[in-house]
């Protein structure tokens, strides 16, 4: 069983930055693919970025060049650095773990990000 806990959300103005963190409780943390998802009101949950056990990363097109996903296996931590934030980035952001970003087994509770124009 893996427990995930996000932190770092908040409210910022457009153009600002936030750094999300996710703490995991598992001895096999380094084996998992980790990802950040987001869900805006009235929209489906979408994958924002993922990082596999070899630290290979993927990003959805709308965040490329603005967001950076990283992981610290020694601390069981996952991060999402978000720069040049836009109002359309407003959503609940979730940390997730699984075999891949398409095979998620564990979810965090979410942290809210609100970007005002």
Question: What is the topological layout?
Answer:
Blueprint: E1 3-7, E2 10-13, E3 18-25, E4 33-39, E5 46-51, E6 57-59, E7 67-72, E8 77-82, E9 91-100, E10 103-107, E11 111-116
Parallel strand pairs: 2-11
Antiparallel strand pairs: 1-3, 3-8, 4-5, 4-9, 5-6, 7-8, 9-10, 9-11
What does this 3D model show about the protein?
With about 120 residues, the chain is mostly beta strands. Helices cover about 0% and strands about 55% of the residues. It has no helices and eleven strands. The protein has strands spanning about 5, 10-15, 20-25, 35-40, 45-50, 55-60, 65-70, 75-80, 90-100, 105, 110-115. Strands 2, 4, 5, 6, 9, 10 and 11 form a seven-stranded mixed β-sheet that branches. A four-stranded antiparallel β-sheet has the order 1-3-8-7, with no helix packed on it. Strand 4 and strand 5 (about 45-50) form a beta hairpin. The radius of gyration is 13 Å and the shape is globular. The model has no long low-confidence stretch (mean pLDDT about 95).
Describe the structure using short key phrases.
globular; 7-stranded mixed β-sheet; 117 residues; mainly beta
Strand tally: 11
**Average pLDDT:** 95
**Beta fraction:** over 45%
Oligomer: single chain
Structural class: mainly beta
Radius of gyration (CA) equals: 13 Å
The N- to C-terminal Cα distance equals: 40 Å
Low-confidence stretches: none
Shape: globular
Percent range of helical residues = under 10%
Number of helices: 0
Order of helices and strands: EEEEEEEEEEE
